[in-house]
Amino acid sequence: xxxxxxxxxxxxxxxxxxxxxxxxxxxxxxxxxxxxxxxxxxxxxxxxxxxxxxxxxxxxxxxxxxxxxxxxxxxxxxxxxxxxxxxxxxxxxxxxxxxxxxxxxxxxxxxx
Length: 112
Known about the structure:
Layout: E1 6-16, H1 20-29, H2 31-37, E2 41-50, E3 55-64, H3 67-74, E4 99-103
Antiparallel strand pairs: 1-3, 1-4, 2-3
Helix pairs in contact: 1-2
């Protein structure tokens, strides 16, 4: 990758399907703003899939140029999920950890 490093930070949780639109708006004004204000953040996505019984799985993907940049967002234990005060309004659970991956190749063409 020409010496450049990109790290994907992935968090997965569950919400009520009926709350999808409100939850996306909430994340955009909380975590989305914090991502944008953190040096080394390259962007983020929120993806969802409906499960069963009115529950949706939500995955937040954020892209970073280094683990140090992630620490700027998440703190000294970047493997721990970061939560916000009003998260309990939406979240059915609070997974304690996130996953980090090194992005080695890829291309996305999107108008989202």
